[in-house]
Amino acid sequence: MRKNFGVKTWIYPQPVLMLGTYDENGTANLMNAAWGGMYDFDKVAISLSSHKTTANLEKTKAFTLSIATKKTMVESDYFGIVSGNKVYDKVLKAGFHPFKSEFVNAPLFEEYPLSIECEVDSFTEDGILVGKIINVSIDGSILTDGKPDPKKLEAISYDPANNNYLLVSEIVGHAFQEGKNIK
Ligand SMILES: Cc1cc2nc3c(=O)[nH]c(=O)nc-3n(C[C@H](O)[C@H](O)[C@H](O)COP(=O)(O)O)c2cc1C
């Protein structure tokens, strides 16, 4: 029997996006954001309430979005439960190593191998941040034949119904191919 649950944001898989910004002193900050994804072919969109990150975004108009991984799961969760408004340099406290993006005024992090570097395209009053993608940078350690390898990346996904992190790395088929079997 099918059960109704009303209004829920239970989309699977839901990304765990790590939003990196600089504050006015050039101190790097990170927050965890699961309410986001691709928007158009060269943009991302994220739904944000008020954070240290949003204050930073107003000033720098730039951010990075990194994919949280199995290896960085504990720190990535920490960046989602502690605000930079409470712990000033939470990136340092977690032992992460920021460095400046070559393309936008926002930090990248040695610990996150895949990052999307964005300029703010728009940020609406109801908190919808749209970023224009300026560059994607990927650490060579997660590439196979020049392309990102999900098995090496070990991205995690947020499970909104059970508040868990899930591993996203198993290949079960080939896109644009498998369906041909019933054509
Ligand atoms: C799994 C997870 C997902 C989250 N997703 C979002 C989100 O999409 N939007 C948002 O505004 N806050 C989200 N948060 C909350 C922020 O990450 C959290 O408030 C954080 O402390 C903000 O950091 P900051 O104040 O240093 O910017 C999420 C937290 C967790 C743990």
Give the arrangement of secondary structure elements:
Blueprint: E1 14-15, E2 17-22, E3 28-33, E4 36-39, E5 43-47, H1 52-60, E6 62-67, H2 73-81, H3 90-93, E7 98-100, E8 107-109, E9 114-123, E10 128-138, E11 143-144, E12 147-148, H4 150-153, E13 155-159, E14 164-168
Antiparallel strand pairs: 1-13, 2-3, 2-6, 4-5, 5-10, 6-9, 7-8, 9-10, 11-12, 13-14
The protein binds flavin mononucleotide (FMN).
Flavin mononucleotide binds next to strand 3, helix 1 and helix 2.
Mean pLDDT over all positions: 97
In the CATH classification, which architecture applies? Roll
Q: How far is it from the N-terminal to the C-terminal residue, by CA?
A: 31 Å
Oligomer: single chain
DSSP E strands, number: 14
Report the radius of gyration as a whole number of Å.
Answer: 17 Å
Order of helix and strand elements from N to C terminus: EEEEEHEHHEEEEEEHEE
